[in-house]
Specification:
Elements lengths: L1 E7 L6 E7 L2 E5 L1 E3 L12 H8 L3 E5 H6 L3 H7 L2 H5 L4 E5 L2 H7 L1 E5 L4 E4 L6 E4 L1 H11 L3 E3 L11 H22 L11 E3 L1 E2 L5 H14 L4 E3 L8 H12 L8 E3 L5 H9 L4 E3 L2 H7 L2 E4 L2 E4 L20 H4 L2 H9 L3 H28 L2 H12 L4
Parallel strand pairs: 4-15, 5-6, 6-10, 10-11, 12-13, 13-14, 14-15
Antiparallel strand pairs: 1-2, 2-3, 7-8, 8-9, 16-17
Length: 376
């Protein structure tokens, strides 16, 4: 992996750069659509590539491990071939899903024993086997196995968890050295900063992670229910410590406003289920505010979804028609909303990049935040 910083904003910590991976360049800031099970839900790969056009998407180790299984992915020749996606993929470590989805998980120094949310079968994730699983999946960027603490979280628990995450990181690194690449391209490894919403723990963790010298770094354990102001405060603490010449990935974030505020704090990479999940529930994000397309006010509104026309669906269908699709529970409505939202998210981070390079990011960001903070 190579990371080149191409521009910074004089009034904030915002940066524009390019990450070069074996499946192509990734221009930052970037939003990664979430393809949990090897599919961005409801979107064909052709639409994903041609309309939404991300340089990189995300897959989930926990879900892919359970289904279709690592054996099937290996037989297919890796996740890219299995899902017919020739651009970059990042896999998270599965840690968050183990803690949030699994019943009766037992966290110990060795790893985590958990019960599948699908069939109740028991499995164990350790730092070592999660590295093996991610080698087999074959993503371009793979993540360290960590513990994602809940919010709110007791200080002493957060401290113990952070230190265990650091010990697990050392085991990940040691084991990775023994594991050759499985396919005809390389993989880049990112460790994860933890520490809940405690400034001193975040500082300790960021310093520890920075000292590892990885090619990129991630911030985990935020966007788990804490107020946005606490998320921004912790992000600011961490980005002040993480090296400036490495990409910074804020995991699981967030709303369009969250993206812009965290870009201003020096974040380069994001992922979140919000554009897809909220889209499937009738929420459309636009540059002028948020639309709940299920509301009766759109029943006879025959104007297009979004006259900015970022994706083809924006001008192909009216608000009234999309509302009708949701009313009758037609899956096409959910697909249209998903394509629109993902297209908007990618447009937003790319506009941010343009304004960083043009030197007027902060002014533009403040204007966009005011505009988007409305219910239409």
């Amino acid at each position: 992996m190579d990371f080149k910083l191409e521009g910074t904003d004089i009034n904030s910590q915002a940066r524009a750069g390019t990450i070069t991976l074996d499946h192509g360049p990734v221009e930052t800031p970037i939003f990664m659509p979430v393809g949990t099970v090897g599919s961005v839900k409801g979107v064909h790969q052709r639409e994903l590539a041609d309309e939404i056009n991300p340089d990189i998407i995300l897959g989930n180790t926990y879900h892919l491990y359970l289904r279709p299984s690592i054996d099937i992915i290996e037989k297919a020749g890796g996740i890219h071939k299995f899902m017919n996606w020739d651009r970059n993929i990042l896999t998270d470590s599965g840690g968050y899903q183990v803690y949030s989805l699994s019943e009766n998980n037992k966290i110990k120094e060795e790893g985590v024993k958990f019960k599948s949310h699908i069939d109740g079968s028991y499995h164990t994730f350790t730092p070592e086997n999660v590295m093996e699983i991610q080698r087999s999946i074959g993503a371009d960027i793979i993540m360290a196995f960590d513990e994602c603490t809940p919010y709110p979280c007791d200080y002493n628990y957060a401290k113990r968890s952070m230190h265990m995450t650091h010990r697990w990181l050392e085991r990940c690194l040691t084991h990775l050295e023994k594991l050759p690449f499985k396919y005809d391209y390389g993989q880049t490894f990112f460790p994860i900063v933890q520490g809940s919403t405690y400034k001193d723990l975040r500082q300790q963790s960021a310093e520890y992670i920075a000292g590892v010298g990885a090619e990129g770094n991630a911030i985990g354990g935020l966007s788990v229910g804490e107020p946005a102001e606490e998320m921004y405060a912790m992000t600011e603490v961490v980005t002040a410590i993480l090296p400036k010449d490495k990409p910074r990935y804020l995991m699981g974030v967030g709303t369009p406003i969250n993206l812009l505020e965290n870009i201003a704090l020096g974040i380069d990479m994001f992922d979140c289920v919000m554009p897809t999940r909220n889209g499937r529930n009738g929420m459309l994000f636009t540059a002028h505010g948020t639309i709940n397309i299920k509301n009766k006010k759109w029943e006879a509104d025959f104007s297009v979804i979004d006259d900015m026309a970022i994706t083809w669906v924006d001008t192909a269908y009216s608000k009234a028609y999309v509302r009708h699709l949701f009313t009758v529970n037609e899956m096409l409505g959910r697909q249209i909303a998903t394509i629109h939202n993902l297209g908007f998210y990618l447009w937003l981070v790319r506009e941010a990049r343009k304004h960083i390079l043009a030197g007027d990011f902060t002014k533009w960001k403040n204007m966009m935040v005011r505009q988007m903070d409305k219910r239409l």
